[in-house]
Amino acid sequence: MYPVARLLYVYTKVRGYKLISRFLPHKVQDIVPLLHQLECMHASRPPWELIYVTLLWLSLVVLVPFPLQRGTGASILERVERVTRLYVSRSGKERDAASIVLGRLYRRRDTPSVLFTSFLTWSEQQLTETARMSSFLATGTLQTLCEILKNADAPLVQEHYDAIRHVLATFRTLEQGRNGLVIRYIVKLEGRLALHLLSTAIKMRAGVIDANLETHIDTLMQALAYSDSRVRYSAAKGLARISACLPAALRQQIVVALLDMLAEHILPDTMPSAALSSDETFDFQTCEKLRETDLHAVSECTWHGVCLALAEHVRRTCVPSNMYVRVIYWVLTALAFDVRRATGSTGTSVRDASCYVLWSLARARDASSTLGPFAPAIAQYLVVSITLDREVSIRRASSAAFQEWVGRTSCIPHGIDILRKTDFAAVGPLRHAYLDCAPYIATWPVYRGVLLQHMMRVSLTHWDAAIRVLGAEAIGKIVSMDKSAASSIMQHLMARVQKTKDQTLVHGALLALVSLARVDSVLAPEASRAALEVSASMLSLSTQSAAAVLEAACRLVALAALPLQVQHVSDAYRGNVSKLLHMALARPEIAVQDAAVDAIEAWKDDEQVAHAYVRRALDTWTTLNDDMQRAAAKVMGVVPVRPEEQSALLCACLDRQAPFSSKLRVETRCAAAASLARLCVQPTEVVRVLQQGLHDMTTDQRGDVGSWVRLACMDSLGHVFCDWDVDVPALESAWVDMVGMLMERIDAVRVKAGHIVRRVADIHATALPNGESILAVVAEPEELRNAPYAFSVLVPLMSLERYRASLLYTLSRTIGSRSEMALREAGQALVDWALTVPDECVHDILVLLHHRAQAHVRENRVFVPILQTILLLLDWDVHKRKSEDVNRMYVTRARVEGREGVDFWIPGGLLT
Predict the structure, then answer these.
(1) Which helix (H) or strand (E) holds 345?
(2) Are 192 and 238 in contact (CB under 8 A)?
(3) In angstroms, rounded to a whole number, what is the distance separating the alpha carbons of residues 667 and 522?
């Protein structure tokens, strides 16, 4: 039975127990076997899935209209209660099923009330006998009581009302407030007790309200501020159900109390008076002022719970029409709830709940006539959340609410057109929402102002740097539609930079100024002055935010170079630019250095800014630290002050014979390789050192960092061969090594090499050996990302004698890596090719491997992969076709024996 029970449990987990239990047998004759099975299970301790499914089956059978008091000895009713009560204190799913059984059992009209009384007494005793209450027993007891009150008759609840409240008092006495699940069931029970108090129609018609009702409502109101969201949601639903049964005057009192909870801990002087009154006229300015109120002192839990309660009230039409304006004021404020806490912010749950309220409002009865005047304002703020909120869940929730308003009210300006662009999937990617959806919506003036205002006030000052970057780019796109607003926005941003010392605010303002300068180059000179006015003490800090400010300042200075005509600027301005860029070039962050290099390239004709830096770098190269050497290598490629000397220094960075080359960091060698392609000096020497860089095998804790140098040299060689006049012998020699790069283990390196090889082959196909054959293989470079395909088409290129050595050496390095994929795909491709080619090719392969092993016998990074490649060929009996070549390898093996650091099983394989 266990496999069946486990399968049924999976079904209940996916579709819910209510649906699955309908298909279980529910005949009278099933009761006794089920009881017997459960009684036996308690002694044998079967898997919990079997107990759970059996109890679910029993919960369906106890609903059968059959007198369960029949039977010899103990009645069926008593047996069901006794065996089910055993599982109420369990910790697993069997507790849930036991609660369902007991709830349905006690609700039966033929069940004596003494049994329910006995259960309540037993529960209270069990909870108070131990010094510390069992959370599992408490949960099971409350679950059972909630199941009973869910559909119980009013007389049953009235009879045991005091006893149930006494059990609830026991929980409060024993302080079970730490357990969120227990509190949730307490809240559900309080709400259901209140509903039963209101169930008597006679009392309601007479206008008489039970005195205990106020206590239940107060408990639910307090639960709206509980830390667990499940408790808050249960309290919100319970409070709304109660309000739906109350007279209109009492409903309004509850709604007013909910709105007053939102105003707690907010200074009264900072709130508009309309937010606290029942004025029925909606004012956009009042709403905007309330959204700007300082909310740092309020509780996110309270706001979330109140918004959930308001949403449930709106769904049940429990909000009076004269309260709509005040509700909308606070809901739209909650839609902007994003309070900074430490390094992040809180308020996601509040914004989500506010979307739920707006979604409910759109579905309210007579929404078009009642809420029509508020629709434009709600649409504007929803559009802001749809496109500019940081959280994807909020963007999608806002999109759903906007869709309801468009579909049900017909009062949203351009609603259908906006929905086409901002559906559930479109607003998912944050970049697409900011840079595509927001500018599209801003084409309508009714939304443009509120989007720009939010970007200026929130996006540019957001704690997340990615939001500031996207916000600045979006401002540029929107302003490009109407450049008349660019000047006023620029003045506001420059004033923000001058007044504040907050790095976050300065960074956002500078990014926006960069976007404005790109839209209108006339604004760039004036905007660049804001970058130069940033205090040096802020920029010199070693924090990430200071680096971001410095990067943005460099971008702004670069944009100002062309319209300024740098030869006519003042010495003071030029000196400030020089200080800023030199400070940026000394930073370790690569992004900051790249921005500074772009700025220096824009100022490359200026003596003080660019030329002085290059001369100083050439004269003091050996004294510069690693970060400054990397920056200097980048600058030398864009500012040719002393081209021959610069080229010689950069070549020395890649030349293995240079005295300081081995001490340079990988990043510096990459920068040198990239800069050599820009300096049109000494092409033959440049090709020689770049060809050396193709064989860089540097590794560190980051892995194969030499691949960065190989890629940089490969890219530079591609530019050299396409843009310069190079001697044919140098071209052919470097070209052969470039083709060897196609055998690299790393997918991205293979693809990049394929693109470069194809670009060079397109230009020099006739001048290169077998150029057309190589071009045919790399016709689609992106296909080389697939390793099985790549090696299957690349390994046969070793049949070309001119490329055999280069391809073989790279392939051996790939096979010798620790990647299982490389051994499986590259190694198998080599074996398949070696078993099909003529003997002469196999002879050359073995000889090449032997010679390379002899030449690098002291370099494990080269020697060990060669031995692994040889062992792979031996395992597949390739050597039997040329046994005399294998005999040559014994000399190599003799040199290997006794060396430390080389696995002995590899050369040992040569003896097989």
Answers:
(1) strand 344-346
(2) yes
(3) 37
